[in-house]
Amino acid sequence: MLHQPRTISRRFPFISGIALLFLCGTLGTAMAATLCVNPRARSGCMATIGAAVAAASPGDTIQVARGVYKEDVKITKSLSLVGQDHQQPVIDATGLPNGILVDGSSAAPNVGVANVLISGFTVQNANFEGILVKNASDVTIVGNHVHDNDQSLDIADHSCPGIPSFETNEGDDCGEGIHLIATSHSSVVRNESAYNSGGILLSDETGPTRGNLISGNNVHDNPYDCGITMASHAPAIPSPVSFGVVHNTIANNISEHNGYELPGAGAGVGIFAPGPGSTAARNVVIDNELLNNGQAGVALHNHAAVPAPAPPVDFNGNEIVGNYFSGNAADSNLPPGRAASGPTGIDVNSIAPIYGTVISQNVFENEAFAVVFNAPSGLLSVHFNDFGANQAGIDNLGAAPVDAVDNWWNCSAGPGTNHCATVLGSKVASSPWLTAPFNSGYRGSFNRGYNQYR
Prior knowledge:
The protein is mainly beta. 6% of the residues lie in helices and 33% in strands.
């Protein structure tokens, strides 16, 4: 079976090198087998995906032919689940919790599951998540179309009846289209996530979520939450502090027209460490397009003060680099005076001290405020960004200082001159500044066409 990865790569040219290496590692064993599924169980195949998963041994591949499969597929072992020959089979989970659940918390004999591939499916109409991964590592989700999930969401009271108790903070969004919980070293690559409550969520209710790559996805028109979210949530199992969402990379995605209901329900990318003991730190948001979202293009929020002896918040070391921002809205979910009043590119807003946050090499257009900062202490570093004409390049609303030297303020004369970007607030160091754009000629064009669904 050593030839199998070549066959799958030829049929699915969008599978990345990461996924191909995964296939070589999991299918290259002497005992690995290939099972098949089609709706009529022809040619020795099974009629349901669930039956094939139950029959598969660790390391096997399951190829699924075109058709509609009304299932909630549960995976608790290492395997590859692929749609056959670009046929994009449909998992229709109407009335069911999820379309696909990768669950390491019930894997025997040990907790945790690793080396799972999910590729080439349409997943729709689940009550909660389209694809949920829990307590797992080395999972690759590539080339899927996940849409119209979160069907149990009660918009009127922001609740999700029946959602599992381990999802401690998903009552107002039903978990979103694709959700990783307690998941590490996994990849979500070149998927389309649309018309769910939110697009892609990384959280930590049952363990740390770290070292994951979210890349090349088209996340759009998810009306009630952020396009892509990294959020530290209350533990679902005994723990004095949250497990943490750390060292994840959000790269080369398009996040467009999310969070536009209520109004202003969600940002393009959100990083949240909401209360005492929570950790959302050392994540990287790089080379994304963040367009026309209902809140800021990127929002970093901490909402609760941490008096002693409560455990501290770790909201430090996040980096926002090389992104393109245009047409995003005000960060309207914060109390009056905590955020800027107009369209905002990046809003860093924390009641706890914040250190090590870097904003660099971004381009801002069609935003009233490029970077808004509000923290009681710490430091925000803002360098080599291109600000637009007649916008507030920096608006510092809090007591912590901003190091904003070496930015382009849309004219060589520097901030505050005619038709240039301005500085609002105090404790902002803006001199010296650049006398030409840092990102000359770049206006977010590189991502167009990168994603197969765009």
